[in-house]
Amino acid sequence: MKNILAEAEIEEDFPKDFGIYDLNQFLNGINLYHSPELDFDNEGYVMIREGKSRAKYFFADPNVIVTPPDKEIALPSEDVCFVLDTKELDRLLKASSVYQLPDLSVIGEAGVVKLVVRDKKNDTSNEFSVVVGEADNEFVFNYKVENIKILPGSYEVVISKKLLSRFKSNSFDATYYIALEPDSTFG
User: Fold this and answer.
1) For residue range 75-110, what is the model confidence (pLDDT) as tens digits?
2) Domain range spanning residue 119?
3) How many domains does one find in the chain?
4) 101 and 136 together in one domain
5) Distances (CA, A) of 102 to 55, 61, 127, 181
6) Is residue 43 domain-shared with residue 101, that is, in the same domain?
7) Are 179 and 88 contained in the same domain?
């Protein structure tokens, strides 16, 4: 959909370039093991092994992988900033699943910034919210919950009213750029 971009520095060296279509799926598969060995000797997949367990993870066709621009990404403005703790993020995502809520909104009202999982198309839907900071302005920035595909951790979140946000990890060297929904409002 071209609405999420992630940048990360990793310690591991890989013997060849390969495409991963769903990074969360790949990383969750690696987490099935305590100390996995990755074998890249095969043409179209990596064999992940540990003890008696094996997994064959197929590489994505390079034609389906969208590559990021060569230049550094800069937000057009930095209008709202807050820290999102991993426990808060986990609770929001769990509440979204429990109540089957498709939207995550960052709302500034009455001097606070709160994150709310809800169904913004249904005024009588259940909601779950967490206060994450203070607000000088009124705003509603909307995401689809399905687009919040980030690794667990604490993040410094910066949102631009130009419908782009940055989630920079405080736990490891990773940054996510996630587009907001077009119905977001500021001021």
Assistant:
1) 999 999 999 999 999 999 999 999 999 999 999 999
2) 80-186
3) 2
4) yes
5) 32, 30, 11, 12
6) no
7) yes
Q: What is the pLDDT of residue 72?
A: 82
- Dist. CA 24–CA 29, nearest whole Å: 8
Residues 87 and 148 both lie in one domain: yes
DSSP one-letter string for 42-75: SSSEEEEEETTEEEEEEPBPGGGPPPPPSSPP--
CATH number at residue 99: 3.70.10.10
pTM: 0.83
Tell me how far apart the alpha carbons of residues 38 and 176 are, in angstroms, rounded to a whole number. 26
Same-domain pairing of 176 and 94 = yes
What is the C-alpha separation between 18 and 20, in angstroms, rounded?
7
Q: What is the C-alpha separation between 20 and 10, in angstroms, rounded?
A: 15
- Block residue for tokens 């550094």: 72
The residue written with tokens 């939207």 in the block is 103
Report the 10 Å Cβ neighbour count for 102.
16
Question: How far, CA to CA in Å, does 57 sit from each of 19, 23, 83, 116, 187?
Answer: 11, 11, 34, 36, 47
Task: Find out whether 181 and 142 touch, Cβ atoms under 8 Å.
Answer: yes
